[in-house]
Specification:
The protein is 51% helix and 14% strand. The chain has 9 helices and 9 strands. The strands form 2 sheets. The chain has a 7-stranded parallel sheet, with helices on both faces. It has a two-stranded parallel ribbon with strand order 7-8. Strand 5, helix 5 and strand 6 form a beta-alpha-beta unit. The N and C termini lie far apart (44 Å). The structure holds NADP nicotinamide-adenine-dinucleotide phosphate. NADP nicotinamide-adenine-dinucleotide phosphate binds next to helix 1 and helix 6.
């Protein structure tokens, strides 16, 4: 896909990966629609995008609300005339062992991380099918393939995004529309701060190497140029997925050791 002039809509663009992705697409000449709940942050981002010579549309958005997601997608098309890329990025995590994490946390996480993605796909697919072209990028996580201890509630939402994207990829075959899932490892953003706030003192959190939000943003833009089914912005990730497929018990042992050493469980 040619990025210059493309129309890209990004949920959760007020911070972290979403913000970096909006800036990276704009830098390459895309017109971007940016949605999140903190519109003051989005306004500042839109100013930076316009200053760089690109166009931006700001929309208040809570992805847990289907109507708001549909409005976000429709407003993008009204303003820019089409939708080339939708990045379903909005999300957050909570920590805690399976038995100590309140049921309400599981429900809210699914509503934001998983159903928010479903709503985005359902709003965008008919538009992209009519265009005969488009790309949906669902920001999952490496933990969608391999959950970490004290992170099961969050990881399950990321696994759900992977399953959804797998089904979608095949359903869309031949339509000119593509779907990809992205699998970051621990990424420098506000994610940890939000997870701490949401977890009421429960232990957990990522172990292992970190990458920057810009690393992930570049991988997402790369996927828009040449769509691939699954995107792994960090070199070690595919190895972890492979190891988990062939030796899940060994992976259990490695995670337990690393998480204990880091004081996460
Ligand atoms: N950081 C990591 O280690 C990591 C690793 C793998 C995958 N991921 C995934 O990457 C995505 C982005 O995370 P991040 O690391 O960039 O975290 P972040 O810095 O905390 O950014 C999260 C973004 O999502 C938005 N958001 C949260 N709840 C929302 C809601 N209900 N409606 C609309 N927007 C909402 C936030 O905006 P508002 O608060 O303004 O609404 C913010 O813009 C998430 O899906 C996350 O699961 C992150």
């Amino acid at each position: 896909m040619q990025i210059t002039g493309a129309v890209v809509a990004i949920t959760g663009a007020s911070a972290g990966i979403g913000r970096a992705t909006a800036l990276e697409f704009a830098r390459e000449g895309a017109r971007v629609a940016i949605g999140a709940r903190r519109t003051d942050r989005l306004d500042a981002l839109a100013e930076a995008i316009r200053a760089s010579g690109s166009e931006a549309l700001v929309l208040a958005l809570d992805v847990a609300d289907e109507k708001q997601v549909r409005r976000f997608v429709d407003a993008t098309v009204e303003r820019f005339g089409r939708l080339d890329v939708l990045v379903n990025n909005a999300g957050y995590g909570v920590r805690g062992r399976v038995e100590e994490t309140p049921a309400a946390d599981y429900e809210r996480l699914m509503r934001v991380n998983y159903l928010g993605t479903v709503y985005g796909c359902q709003a965008a697919i008919p538009i992209m099918r009519r265009q005969g072209r488009g790309l949906i990028v669902n920001i999952s996580s490496i933990v969608g393939h391999r959950a970490m201890p004290a992170g099961g509630a969050y990881a399950a939402t990321k696994a759900a995004q992977i399953s959804l994207t797998e089904a979608l990829r095949v359903e869309l075959r031949g339509s000119g529309v593509y779907a990809s899932s992205v699998h970051p490892i621990g990424t420098e953003s506000e994610f940890v701060e939000v997870a701490e706030r949401e977890s009421q003192g429960r232990k957990g959190g990522a172990v292992g190497p970190q990458q920057t939000a810009l690393d992930v943003a570049r991988a997402i833009v790369g996927c828009a140029k040449h769509p691939t089914p699954e995107v792994y912005p960090h070199a070690l990730s595919r190895g972890l997925v492979w190891l988990n497929a062939v030796a899940p018990g060994l992976n259990d042992w490695l995670w337990a050791r690393a998480a204990r050493k880091a004081g996460r469980i």
